[in-house]
């Protein structure tokens, strides 16, 4: 990521518009980028943030950014449902940066963002780092499972961030008294069960949310629908000040979930796609392949040999299947990887460049894929939501997802931000057929059988 940032042109401008630096093609390109970013200029964001936007190469705000950012920077609660890959992350990243820009001298966590996986938390942290990199004094921290909790505690004690991104479980754990935190006095509190964090006093935990002003949940339906995670979120929520902005985002949300999300909010501004039909991605070519289970490997290898791809994500139904399929593809000399660590007994199978064993390997592996060091990722639904890898242009459902929501999230990994992409789903059982029918009925799309030859113009960006 740092490498990509280094390649971006410098940007400088005066209040009236753009100020050219350097000469020739380079400065022309800079000027053009700045002019195109003018849609963002209407949001009246601070200059340091605008600079980050231009450096990220964002030219125009997307529809969801147009619809949400002006409301969000007024401090309104937001409940936003918009399709995958259209920049929902930047909605809360830019708004929060703007809202705390003048409060960086204040101590304590002001923004908390919760996501359902460590990979998502890591990715969101990086979007904050990219877009906020010109804001002097801004501190951004992340806390998620699979990393040392002591390190998180140290970060919070010594250098408390303005913005904290994390998974609900880890954030809640950090709110409990821990090693290094002042010990509670002996007495009733010692008898408290694990997980009961709410009664602890601020000074007893390393993480206090007493100064929080913005509470954000990404992939909120996933977080809210899973009972354990919802409970964690509720426990965190009740330890935050009453007066704060709450924003929640997802591409999918049932009416019931929407109702629960709204209970966390006061008169939210609701953004909803008008019809389910509009949730499907315009640039995405979708096919099915009817086959038997035993034909899947051959079909996959044929496809990987014949299709043109930058990067491809292959979804399977279990970690075991991901490890097995990844192993098979590597044996066939495909540049394949998986996010999942090999169980210890298979560690000897490790290939060069693969980081193994330790839990935190998942983030390293994700970065490896994002860095384009591997072109094929075999994974499960943990990568199905929220993950953004620009070069992924093909998604293969080697195993069909369980429902139409997950289908939508998975195929949304290709065709990000309006680009073209291809999604192929292997349909082998009656249940697979049923899910495929649900997808077609719900999103009002016809997903045909994959032809013998797929025209590259249909799924490759020019
Ligand atoms: P979502 O959360 O809606 O699925 P993301 O926030 O992950 O989508 O955004 C998808 C990709 O689009 C990311 O790589 C992000 O950096 C990029 N992006 C966001 N907003 C813009 C914009 N206005 N112009 C260009 N790219 C953008």
Which descriptors would you attach to this protein?
alpha/beta; Rossmann fold; globular; disordered N terminus; binds adenosine-5'-diphosphate; single chain; 462 residues; 7-stranded parallel β-sheet
- Please list the strands of the largest sheet in the order they lie side by side: 3-4-2-5-6-1-7
Strand content: 5-15%
Main β sheet profile: 7 strands, parallel
Oligomer kind = single chain
Q: How many structural domains?
A: 2
C-alpha-based Rg, rounded: 23 Å
Estimate the global geometry from the Cα principal axes: globular
Corresponding CATH architecture of the largest domain: 3-Layer(aba) Sandwich
So what's the CATH class of the largest domain? Alpha Beta
Question: How many DSSP H or I helices?
Answer: 18
Decide which structural class fits the backbone.
alpha/beta
Report the strand count: 13
CATH homologous superfamily identity of the largest domain: P-loop containing nucleotide triphosphate hydrolases
What does the average pLDDT come to? 83
Q: Name the ligand types.
A: adenosine-5'-diphosphate
Distance between the termini: 24 Å
Tell me the CATH topology of the largest domain: Rossmann fold
Low-pLDDT runs of 5+ residues are: 1-24, 180-203, 355-360
Description:
By secondary structure, this protein is an alpha/beta fold. The protein folds into two domains: 251 residues, Rossmann fold (3-Layer(aba) Sandwich); 181 residues, 3-Layer(aba) Sandwich (Rossmann fold). 37% of the residues lie in helices and 13% in strands. The protein contains 18 helices and 13 strands. Helix 15 links the parallel strand 10 and strand 11. Helix 6 packs across helix 7. The N terminus is likely disordered. It binds adenosine-5'-diphosphate (ADP). The site of adenosine-5'-diphosphate has 17 residues, from helix 6. The site of adenosine-5'-diphosphate (ADP) has 17 residues, from helix 6.
């Amino acid at each position: 990521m740092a490498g990509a940032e280094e390649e971006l042109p410098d940007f400088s401008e005066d209040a009236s518009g753009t100020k050219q630096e350097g000469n020739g093609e380079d400065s022309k390109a800079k000027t053009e980028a700045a002019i195109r970013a003018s849609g963002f200029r209407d949001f009246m964001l601070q200059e340091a943030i605008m600079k980050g936007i231009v450096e990220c190469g964002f030219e125009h705000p997307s529809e969801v950014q147009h619809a949400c950012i002006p409301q969000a920077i007024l401090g309104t609660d937001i409940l936003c449902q918009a399709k995958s890959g259209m920049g929902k992350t930047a909605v809360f990243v830019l708004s929060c940066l703007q809202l705390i820009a003048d409060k960086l001298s204040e101590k304590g966590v002001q923004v908390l963002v919760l996501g359902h996986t460590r990979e998502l938390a890591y990715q969101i942290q990086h979007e904050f780092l990219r877009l906020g990199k010109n804001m002097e004094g801004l501190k951004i921290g992340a806390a998620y499972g699979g990393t040392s909790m002591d390190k998180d505690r140290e970060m919070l004690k010594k250098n408390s961030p303005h913005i904290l991104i994390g998974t609900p479980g880890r954030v809640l754990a950090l709110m409990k008294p821990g090693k290094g935190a002042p010990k509670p006095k002996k007495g009733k509190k010692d008898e408290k069960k694990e997980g009961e964090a709410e009664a602890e006093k601020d000074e007893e935990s390393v993480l206090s949310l007493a100064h929080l002003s913005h509470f954000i949940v990404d992939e909120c339906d996933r977080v809210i629908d899973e009972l354990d995670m919802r409970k964690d979120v509720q426990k965190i929520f009740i330890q935050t000040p009453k007066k704060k902005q709450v924003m929640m985002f997802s591409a999918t949300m049932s009416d019931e979930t929407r109702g629960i999300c709204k209970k966390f909010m006061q008169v939210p501004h609701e953004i909803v796609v008008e019809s389910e039909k509009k949730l499907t991605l315009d640039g995405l070519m979708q096919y099915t392949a009817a086959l038997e289970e035993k034909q899947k490997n051959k079909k996959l290898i044929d496809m990987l040999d014949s299709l043109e791809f930058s990067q491809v994500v292959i979804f399977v139904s279990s970690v075991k299947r991901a490890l097995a399929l990844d192993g098979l593809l590597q044996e066939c000399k495909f540049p394949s990887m998986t996010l999942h660590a090999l169980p210890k007994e298979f560690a000897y199978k490790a290939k060069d460049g693969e980081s193994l064993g330790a839990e935190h390997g998942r983030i390293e592996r994700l970065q490896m894929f994002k860095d384009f060091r591997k072109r094929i990722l075999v994974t499960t639904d943990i990568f199905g939501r929220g993950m953004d890898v620009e070069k992924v242009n093909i998604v293969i459902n080697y195993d069909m997802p369980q429902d139409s929501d997950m289908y939508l999230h998975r195929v949304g990994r290709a065709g990000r931000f309006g680009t073209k992409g291809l999604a192929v789903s292997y349909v082998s059982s009656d249940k697979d057929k049923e899910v495929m029918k649900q997808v077609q009925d719900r999103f009002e799309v016809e997903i045909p059988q994959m032809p013998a030859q797929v025209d590259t113009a249909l799924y490759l960006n020019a």
